[in-house]
Design goal:
Length: 446
Amino acid sequence: MNNQQWSTKLGFVLAAAGSAIGLGAIWKFPYTAGANGGSIFLLFFILFTVVISGPILLAEFVIGRKGKTDAISTFKKLAPSTPWSVIGIFGTIIAIIILSFYSVVGGWILSYLARSVTGGLSGLTQGEYGALFDSIIANPVEVLLAQLIFMLITILIVQGGIQKGIEKASTFMMPALLILFVVLAIRSMTLEGASEGLEFLFIPDWSYFSGETMLLALGQAFFALSVGLAVMITYSSYLSDKENLGRSALSVASLNIIISILAGLVIFPAVFALGFEPNEGPGLVFVVLPAVFNELVFGGVFMFVFLVLLLFATLTSAFSVLEMVVASFSRGNDRKRKQYTWIAGSLIFAIGIPSALSFGVLTDVTIMGYVIFDFADYITSSFGLPLGALLISLFVSFQLKKEDVFTELSKGSSGPKPWMTVWYFLIKVFVPLAILMIFLQSFKLI
């Protein structure tokens, strides 16, 4: 049983949204959408969020609050003497891999933040921004030092626990980021030539339609909501029985879609207006946004504020992943929380070193044609998270009793609602079939 708990529903929603929004919406969505047709990718991302990853998010909320402990112990508690606990173990492994390369990107943000203070991001040509990014990620000392600092910040916050650490930080960070993103989107859309970027984002080009695009959009829907690796099982285990799980899931999923679209509105009009390519890759945000800020009055100040908030958003996602790993290690023993936080954080940093060096000294080391960083991203987002989500849907459908699930959903509300039946159908029938069909399609087996 967890001794920790969220102090307010808003704190939980903002922390869960922070876990979801982070780099998933701001960094990963634009470059993945840019490389996969823009509007087609967005269409499937929204569709899969609504009918697949959103329902899985609610399923994780149900499992987490019902178990009220870490992910591994939850499955052992709800399904004793069965192999279902493998879901928690699998999720913990995927979480470690995700944070290992995620912390590398967090380090890139710190590098840019340092340069924004010294003026190193001002007055460059558009081509020089690309060269700057390439030089940063190829510098082994800088990327490892920045990654280490990012993990140290994450460790220091997470060791403080739920209310004093994660919730307190998230309550400030997320509203501030949302406001700044709206300002940036307005400026980006008023650049000369921005309309081409809006067309790219909102007018479907069906030539990009493929099984691979659907699989990537599905992976993004899972990555962006932090579902499929049992992070939200851990977060919801700290919820009281007074909270309405359905409303919380709807709030988190809606915020995630809104921020993803806002990220697209910030990036793609600027990409086309300033002559960049939408398929720039993982460096898209780092190359395009400094050029956008150059078009603003007091652009250097705005750039600094944006990078601070982007760092905050990135940290909230890192908090959730490390919290899940620490909870699995400590098994509710708060006295050992600090010790396990440092052990888990150090382990994740060490595992992330090859990803950090992927664009420099290890650039020639590839797995299945991917550098180590890209392989870790691809294998977790396109396979690890969907597989985890599939197992979670099967667990809710075939291990938990339907009446127990509905009872959990009804807490904090006036009783069962018609939408619960629709959700249960999605979880039991549609979600497993959809994930399997997309897997088969991507492997060209159907």
